[in-house]
Amino acid sequence: MTVLDLFSGPGGWSHALNVLGVRDVGLEWDEWACKTRAAAGQLTIRTDVALYPVWPFLGKTVGLIASPPCQAWSMAGKRLGLVDQPLVHQAVADLAAGRDTRAKLLAACRDERSLLAAEPMRYLHALNTVGEPEWVAMEEVPDVLPLWRQYAAVLRHWGYSVWTGILNAADYGVPQTRRRAILLASRVRTAEPPSPTHAQVAEPETLFGPGRARWVSMEGALGWGATDRPVPTVCAGGGPGGGPEPFPSGSRKALSAARDRGTWTPRANGIVRQSLREGASWAARHGPRGSRPADAPAETYTADAHRWSWSLRSNNQANATVRSIEEPAGTLFFGHRANECTWIAEPVATQPEGEPQAAPEPIRITVREAGILQTFPADYPWAGNKGQQFSQIGNAVPPLLAGHLLAPHLGVALDSDDFTLAA
User: Fold this and answer.
1) Phi/psi at 173 (5° precision)
2) Statement: residue 207 has pLDDT above 80
């Protein structure tokens, strides 16, 4: 029996299933997401979900997963999906009744991607003719919740137990306050959301429940210590997908030379970047400093290290979310220059007397860091250039959240320690 994953992306749902001991078949159009999936060993059919036939899966599908593209609905875009929403609702109603009016409705859509949110119903209607699938799990941005409720009404008519609602990924151990509209349905069990494992403020165990841990912070997920700083990396600079330089171009040669000889050179203002590979959190994971990899940056210490605290800024807009590394990140989204995440330094509450020191320059988040904050393994094999990799990460379902959603359907106990992050 097959778990069918529509719009499977780089493998957020698939990685969760692999951890839980199950493999899926992913349908995905994006070339680089398919290459990432291939490198991760995931079964993939590169195709347009809207054109692929359902008949190859009839009689073989135990579960259906769908995370339609969110660009038409996301707050990071023009949100034309909201304008097209009546057309999408009409498409879902027609497909649930066995009528395919997609071509006519698509011609009226302001964003052709809007109608992709109706595609799961085409598969569900065909599969229902043979009493499949046993369970369904779907995920999208919060504004799609009314559409999920329409799906729920249809699925209940077909004999499913269904739950829909908004879940915050941070409540399930994801170091990111990512809110998503979720639909869970089952023919064989009562559909309900998984019990949260984390809370903004830790809750002790009581007679009424096991308690919840504090939300996972960015520094906790990345394995940083209290005084660790992001390490700058030399990137290709501007151009398609590359984004702006994270530091002045004149610094690139000095940083390249420093990397070659295993040290980081001070900037002109005297500030020295501090290695991530310091502090108790790193030592606990990787042993004493003497066992560090030969190519790791040399440890550096600076007298002004205590002057600055580091935060993650979600983009360069005036209303950008800024979170301290002691908190979860805001929702990660990529794909536009205006949406690039950067580490920024802010003065601590108490500053030593004397002449104020210039703050360290912002540092772009790395693919590895962004993937970890989305709960992918540190060594996940992202394919494509940096822009393509960031886009995949921002569009993916956090595997840890997916694991919590899928484990009850599979009858498997989820151990969050299996979703290793920093390495």
Assistant:
1) 90, 5
2) no
Residue 423 is assigned to a structural domain of this protein: no
Q: In terms of residue numbers, what domain contains 236? A: 219-327+333-373
Q: What is the pLDDT of residue 335?
A: 62
Q: Is the pLDDT assigned to residue 156 strictly greater than 90?
A: yes
pLDDT for res 191: 97
Which among 177, 184, 229, 225 has a CA at the least distance from the CA of 198? 177
Based on the domain organization, do 179 and 285 belong to the same domain? no
pLDDT digits over 249-293, tens only?
333 333 334 334 333 333 333 333 333 333 344 344 444 433 434
Q: Are residues 184 and 56 in the same domain?
A: yes
> Residue 409 sits in a domain of what CATH number?
3.40.50.150
Please state the separation of Cα 2 from the chain's center in Å.
24
The domain tally of the chain equals 2
26 and 73 together in one domain: yes
| Burial degree of 159 (CB within 10 A; 0-12, 13-18, 19+) | exposed
pLDDT in tens, 327-355: 999 998 876 554 578 999 877 766 566 66
In a domain, 35, yes or no: yes
